[in-house]
Amino acid sequence: MSGTRLASGSTRVRSPINRAPSPLLAVGLPWVSIMLAAMASFSPIIASAPVLPPLSFMVLLAWRMLRPTLLPIWAGLPLGAWDDLYSGQPFGSGIVLFSGAMLAMEAIDARFLWRGFAQDWLAGAALLAAYLLLAAAFAGLAAGYPLPMTIGPQLLLAVVLFPPVTRLVAMLDRVRLLPLRRI
Amino acid sequence: MARSQDRRPGFSRRAQVGIFTGYVVAVAGVLLGAVLLVVSLLNPGAFAFARAGAAEVARPLGAAGAESRVASQGVFAAIGAYLNAGRQNAELSREVAAARANAVAMRAIESENRRLKALLGIAEAAPRPVAAARLIGSTSASSRRFAVLSVGSRQGLVKGQPVRSGGGLIGRVVEIGPDTARVLLVTDPDNVVPVRRASDGLPGFVQGGANGRIEIRLINSGINPLHKGDVFVTSGSGGIYPPGIPVAVATQPHRDGATGHLASDPADADYVLVLPIYQPAAVATLEATQKAAPPPPEDDTP
Hints:
The structure holds 2 protein chains of 2 kinds.
Chain A lengths: L1 H6 L11 E2 L2 H16 L16 H12 L9 H12 L5 H19 L5 H27 L8 H25 L4 E2 L1
Antiparallel strand pairs in A: 1-2
Chain B lengths: L12 H30 L5 H36 L1 H36 L10 E3 L1 E4 L7 E4 L12 E3 L4 E8 L4 E5 L6 E6 L5 E6 L5 E5 L12 E4 L11 E9 L2 E6 L9 E3 L5 H13 L10
Antiparallel strand pairs in B: 1-13, 2-3, 3-6, 4-5, 4-13, 5-6, 7-8, 7-10, 8-9, 9-12, 10-11, 11-12
């Protein structure tokens, strides 16, 4: 499987004949980028309200849509756990939601064999809405107090920012396949 | 885009088993996550050690971010100051004139206050802060409101200590690592702060609304005496927060309280102070009774 992961995009980047993508970068970059997105809470913004979109989840979806087989289907388990450490959600919420999203994307792929920009955006928006709604519900359970629904602006921002995030991930994908290794 | 090759294993037994195992692990992940979620809902501190470890890992990142936040705020403030320098100058001159008059009156009151306190024999020692720190992170994507401090148990922090900035109350410490600590902000719905109105001591409490606003509720219900602009400070009841720290300003009175905004926005706080618990003995007694007996049913409370 790792062979196909390396080869799947190498035709897009023009490379000298004796160069190949570095396996560490090719396999590791998606994981590292999602983990760094989870750590975006350690950014210069100290928010008194939930304002940032769920960046790590968006990057995960973007990688999953760009390269459906790059991340294994169980990737939601470790990445969700990592996100839980930084997100402030009760531990386990990220594991459930990330794993659920990977399975949902599998179902979407199985149902719609051909995809396009609008459909990807729509699927992303639906998954983001479900993610934010359930995450807010879990947080409300943890606080023991019915939270007012504050996810409206956050959801809007997340849906609007989803295409730029997919573009950003596409740029990372070119970095991932840079021919750095000499054969 | 057509379906990927990897999901069509063909007759390869190994590929078929690999895909099947992937699905099994993914479904197991959902179930495991659900179990962990239930555990952390029942016992919120269960994974505190993991979070503390993670915060330690990200500490340099957050410290760098805090530096750049302060620097960028300085740049924006400088640009803004140029833009409205003239108007601001006139306003400030007026304010300085008024403040000078006030200061004279204040000095007189202060000396009278000192004299009266000396007469009464009250020794009021201001609590020495435990540590000064930067806020290096916050949960900016979740409805729960936590922030991370750049100091921890090595600097003498313990659970429950209040955190304030120059402008007012920020929250209280809930989880501790060696060099980081997690702060429950005042805007979290789980954080209830006993307050009184600064002008007349009207008691009430402040609860976060998770959307950056806070709810001010009064203890005595009846006619709502709150007005826009009322300032609330901590009352010292409960024993955690020392009295007199500004918490909230009422912006929108409603039937049984008011909606307000924070006296001190954590985003503006350059440095924050961690204070000792106001009455540790009272807090310890309260926790002991809560451990010994479950909280009384809601109906019994008058």
